[in-house]
Amino acid sequence: RFVTKKGHCNVRHGNVKDRLRYFADLFTSIVDLKWSYNVAIFVATYTSTWLIFAFLWWLVAFCRGDFEKVNSDEVCVIGIDSFTSAFLFSIETQVTIGYGTRAITDVCPEAIILLLVQSIFGSIVDAFMVGCMFVKISQPNKRAETLMFSDKSVISLRDGKMCLMFRVGDLRNSHIVEAQIRAKLIKSRQTQEGEFMALDQTDLDVGYTTGADRLFLVTPLIICHVIDEKSPFWNMSETDLKEEEFEIVVILEGMVEATGMTCQARSSYVEDEVLWGQRFMPVLMLEKGFYDVNYSNFHDHFEVDTPDASAKDQHLMKQLPLDDAR
């Protein structure tokens, strides 16, 4: 399976030799990590910077002999008498707490320079790490959890044409703005020249030419792919469907109304999940003053009379009387 029912791509990028490319875009690399790794990096980054600058503050005090001085006016930093106190001063400096028990003096310029360096470096760390956490939290991935796809897709007649159909729905009252649906057929094939193309992708027209692919997703909708001469299912009958190996990947994307960020939900249907001669149960009911959506029937379907011949054969059979008349 190329894409799971939950929308995860079943692809692993192994044997990548030039892994330094990931560090070229370190921000995105960190955001893409799991939450556990993000929290670990967040804690490790701040802890390590505090420890490094604590050692530098301790080193300044040690080299200046502040541990042996009695007069506080002659030391570089008042209140540093051990590495622990230097570590606490490092935290106070970087996060601008300032309890008041430890303070820098003007007797040694190296301490002033170190204070400037830690203040600037701390601001950079804050901007980077807080930015990573903010983007991680505000990612619209969880919004896709409330976008539903039917467990099965069906093939049956609609308006006299063979159609491949599946259902999509949104569980939230806040809508997906400018929602658009796409579908791709994933199937390995061999070209006329003998080249084998693994997982070749073919677009399925789900309303691109008519604008029907742009959805007003307020209630569950049935997405329809008309099986015509341009469709890869044109020559496929019910018997052929059971013998084929393919996967239909469907992609629903749009902007989250609350945040304005782009959201994408994916699902897929393998050949065993495409049912011939079926139609979806209705889920929309008109009540007093409003429309009620019954999501208990969202995945349900029922059998209808459908020819088992391919759409091409059905089209030819319809043309036969005209040819005989001529």
TrEMBL record:
<dbReference type="GO" id="GO:0034702">
    <property type="term" value="C:monoatomic ion channel complex"/>
</dbReference>
<feature type="site" description="Role in the control of polyamine-mediated channel gating and in the blocking by intracellular magnesium">
    <location>
        <position position="126"/>
    </location>
</feature>
<dbReference type="GO" id="GO:0034765">
    <property type="term" value="P:regulation of monoatomic ion transmembrane transport"/>
</dbReference>
<dbReference type="GO" id="GO:1990573">
    <property type="term" value="P:potassium ion import across plasma membrane"/>
</dbReference>
<protein>
    <recommendedName>
        <fullName>G protein-activated inward rectifier potassium channel 3</fullName>
    </recommendedName>
</protein>
<keyword id="KW-0630">Potassium</keyword>
<keyword id="KW-0851">Voltage-gated channel</keyword>
<feature type="transmembrane region" description="Helical">
    <location>
        <begin position="111"/>
        <end position="135"/>
    </location>
</feature>
<dbReference type="Pfam" id="PF17655">
    <property type="entry name" value="IRK_C"/>
</dbReference>
<dbReference type="InterPro" id="IPR041647">
    <property type="entry name" value="IRK_C"/>
</dbReference>
<keyword id="KW-0406">Ion transport</keyword>
<dbReference type="Pfam" id="PF01007">
    <property type="entry name" value="IRK"/>
</dbReference>
<dbReference type="InterPro" id="IPR013518">
    <property type="entry name" value="K_chnl_inward-rec_Kir_cyto"/>
</dbReference>
<feature type="domain" description="Inward rectifier potassium channel C-terminal">
    <location>
        <begin position="147"/>
        <end position="317"/>
    </location>
</feature>
<dbReference type="GO" id="GO:0005886">
    <property type="term" value="C:plasma membrane"/>
</dbReference>
<dbReference type="InterPro" id="IPR014756">
    <property type="entry name" value="Ig_E-set"/>
</dbReference>
<dbReference type="GO" id="GO:0005242">
    <property type="term" value="F:inward rectifier potassium channel activity"/>
</dbReference>
<dbReference type="InterPro" id="IPR040445">
    <property type="entry name" value="Kir_TM"/>
</dbReference>
<keyword id="KW-0633">Potassium transport</keyword>
<dbReference type="InterPro" id="IPR016449">
    <property type="entry name" value="K_chnl_inward-rec_Kir"/>
</dbReference>
<feature type="domain" description="Potassium channel inwardly rectifying transmembrane">
    <location>
        <begin position="3"/>
        <end position="140"/>
    </location>
</feature>
<keyword id="KW-0812">Transmembrane</keyword>
<feature type="transmembrane region" description="Helical">
    <location>
        <begin position="39"/>
        <end position="63"/>
    </location>
</feature>
<feature type="transmembrane region" description="Helical">
    <location>
        <begin position="75"/>
        <end position="91"/>
    </location>
</feature>
<keyword id="KW-1133">Transmembrane helix</keyword>
<keyword id="KW-0472">Membrane</keyword>
<comment type="subunit">
    <text>Associates with KCNJ3/GIRK1 to form a G-protein-activated heteromultimer pore-forming unit. Interacts (via PDZ-binding motif) with SNX27 (via PDZ domain); the interaction is required when endocytosed to prevent degradation in lysosomes and promote recycling to the plasma membrane.</text>
</comment>
<keyword id="KW-0813">Transport</keyword>
<keyword id="KW-0407">Ion channel</keyword>
<comment type="similarity">
    <text>Belongs to the inward rectifier-type potassium channel (TC 1.A.2.1) family. KCNJ9 subfamily.</text>
</comment>
